[in-house]
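Pilus assembly protein, pasting as requested.
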Amino acid sequence: MAMQAVARLKREESGSMLVEFGLLFIPLVVVIVGILEIGLVLLAQQVLQSNTSNAVRVIERGEALGLSAEDARSLARQAICSGTLVLVGEAACNASLKLDVRIIDGSPVPSMFDDEGAVDDDAFAAGNGVAGNSMLVRAVLELPSLTGFLPDLITGPGGQRIVTAQAVFRIDPYAPSL
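Structure tokens follow.
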């Protein structure tokens, strides 16, 4: 039976199998590349959220108490960027990471994005609380586009893939004050 199939394929010289393969190959490649692109962005999102949670633990335990607001933000930035970031090295993370560390005091928190959907640099502040304060940490990281595939679906203005992470916590009320 297998020999008959091979003989039949040899007789067909029209190339219909090659045409059918060509018609199916392009959509197959598009689907595979799309899955890879979206998967890499989701992986980067998860890693950023995990690194932000680790950075929050540093502040939450009171290790930033007694530091200036900018020094506390630098400590959090260092904790986020020193972790394993997917698709971005530590130097690129330090350059493109936007970090907002602020005390939650009942005033409204500004949006991280402007009306066009781009990251609003004015919405990021540096803050440092005392033991017992509730804090908010927001991180925004721009990832480079790998292939430019599906640009309108998974990129922001400027063609960058933007991933965000947030954490709300309370500084340990029993943390030693310096």
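Note for the archive: Strands lie at 98-103, 134-143, 161-170.
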